[in-house]
Amino acid sequence: MSGMALSKKETRKVVQTGNSLGVGLPKSIIDSLKIKRGDEIEFDVKDNQIILNKKRKWEEEVDTEMLEMLSETFEEHDEVFKNLKDR
Q: Which among 20, 26, 29, 67 could bridge 10 via Cys, Cβ 3.0 to 4.6 Å?
């Protein structure tokens, strides 16, 4: 998390959602973490506090330059890989 603190405490009511309980996120947090529908949130509990983090997608974790190099390698050695598969 970016270490961003809310300028003021905000309160949300816990609501029933199916068999779970849910809490809406304040817009300030949504905007700060750029949370969108479908994003995943990781939960952790430490010292009686709930810590929420936006789960990073693998695309954000992988270096784009590394992916390009891998792609070029696979293209250059396509025949070798096909022959290995047939062994």
A: 26
Q: Which of 2-11, 44-53, 56-65 has the lowest mean pLDDT?
A: 2-11
Q: What pairing do the DSSP bridges indicate for beta strands 20-22 and 49-54?
A: unpaired
Q: Is 66:14 a contact under the CB 8 Å cutoff?
A: no
Provide the angle, in degrees to the nearest 10, between the axes of the packed helices 78-85 and 64-76.
70
Domain count, the chain: 2
What is the enclosing helix (H) or strand (E) of 51?
strand 49-54
Q: How far is CA 1 from the centre of its chain?
A: 11
* 40 and 62 fall within a common domain: no
Q: Is it the case that residue 50 has pLDDT exceeding 60?
A: yes
